[in-house]
Amino acid sequence: MSNDFSGMSAPMDAGDDFREPPKWPKVVGILSIVFGALNLVCNGIGSVFAFFTPTLMKSAEAQSPGGFPASMTTFNPLLAGLMVVSLCFGVLLLLAGIMTLNRRAVGRPMHIVYSLGAIVMLVVGIMFQLQQIDDIAAWVRDNPDAAFAQQWSPMTTYVSMAIGIVIGGAYPIFCLVWFGALGKRPEIDAPEVL
């Protein structure tokens, strides 16, 4: 029997520098996958509503004395475009999450692109919503006897918009800070793996 142990690696002793791989790629990757999937579901439903809501509102006008503002009964291509682009960012976040979960270095730039794009989309969405609120408020002033005008509350609209801003902006800002400002952690310096 031969005692040749040259093909075996030497056992590690207490002095060897062994570092356990970081756990954050798994956590952040799973969060990105979950939020990306939620984005696809919510914006998918929102995209369908953006195309069909004006038609539904037009048919409901007969039952509502005074009707509805024009912004609610006409198709808005900007809104539909925002929803479709948001769907694309949902796909990007989902893929970035999968790459990060698999410890691929490409997950970092994908998250940064997602974050920057999502923040731009959030700002454009806020501007769009504020314009819509102004249009509805002007219509309400011109049609004070309409049933919709008597029920509409700008405060409710602003509160729901603020909640949307917090929900829509929290994760992109987190990703921008985590992968941008804090992105130069030693475990990310490896070119291939997180």
Description:
- With 194 residues, this protein is mainly alpha-helical.
- It is built from 6 helices and no strands.
- Mean pLDDT is 83; it is low at 189-193.
Layout: helices, strands, pairs:
Blueprint: H1 24-60, H2 70-73, H3 77-101, H4 107-142, H5 147-151, H6 154-181
Helix pairs in contact: 1-3, 3-4, 4-6
Unreliable sequence segments: 189-193
Tell how many strands the DSSP assignment holds.
0
The proportion of strand residues reads under 5%
- The helix fraction, in percent, is 55-70%
Features:
0% strand, 70% helix, mainly alpha, 194 residues
Summarize the structure.
With 194 residues, this protein is an all-alpha fold. The protein is 70% helix and 0% strand.
